[in-house]
Every structure is written in structure tokens, then in C-alpha cells.
Amino acid sequence: MIGTYTIGKKAVMFGYKRYGIPGAVASGGAALAGYLIIRRALKSSTNDGNVDSAIDAGEIQSAVEEKGLGAVTSTETLDRAINEDEVSSPLDMDDVQSSAEEESDEFGDSTGGDGSSAES
After folding, report:
1. Can you give the residue ranges of every domain in the chain?
2. 0.70 cut: is pTM over it?
3. Most exposed of 42, 66, 67, 108 (fewest Cβ within 10 Å)?
4. Given CA atoms 73, 115, 4, 6 in this order, what sign does their dihedral have?
5. pLDDT values of the chain reduced to their tens digit, one per residue, 120 residues
6. 106 three-state secondary structure
7. How open is the CA angle 47-50-56, to the nearest 5 degrees?
8. Per-residue exposure over 6-16, b if at least 16 CB sit within 10 Å of its own CB, e if not
């Protein structure tokens, strides 16, 4: 598993190589936002404070690069990005998905957008 800093750095480099400075900002922001959305959803669903080791940030980055920030709420992405063996309490993936959708909606509201892009 890779950490938040690494995911942000890789996403920024990917965006910069593809689209220059605006792409770096958008790509890095979207990947980091996706990671934070999943982490918050997982924490709220499990009541476990240490969930970082259960999240595969590389999977989140790939999903966000391919489909945008909305990809973090899909069951497929959540199944690939969360290692259930690393979570200390039982995990209901439907609960995590609904929490991720709520977090995504909150993120969209706080940025003034629909949550599909980090270009603000």
C-alpha cells in the first residue's frame, strides 16, 4: 500500500505530463480527494481509526484517472481498493459505498461543483 503523499505526487506527475500545470492540479486534486473520500467512508462504516493500511491508493488513482472522481463511489472500485483483511471490524461494502456517496456529495457541495472534477 502507498500513502497519501505518494498518491498525490504520482497523480500530479501524471496530470502534468499529459496536460501541463492545469492537468497536474486537476489530476492530483481528484486522486487525493478520491482517497480521502474512501478513507472517511471506511472510517465511518467501521468505527475504526486506523484504516489507511486497508486502502490501496494506486487503485483509487487508476480509477480516478480513467473515470473521474465519481469512480470512487462504484462498488467495483471499492472492492479493488479496500483490503478487508486489514480492517479490524466486520465490513459491509454496501454501507461503505453509501458512505462514500455521501462523502462525495459533501465534497461536491463544498467545492461548489458536482464532485466530478477537482478543477476549482
Report:
1. 1-48, 54-84
2. no
3. 66
4. positive
5. 456 667 677 777 777 787 788 877 877 778 888 888 888 888 877 776 677 778 887 788 888 888 887 888 888 888 888 888 777 777 777 888 888 888 777 766 555 444 444 443
6. helix
7. 110
8. ebbebbbebbb
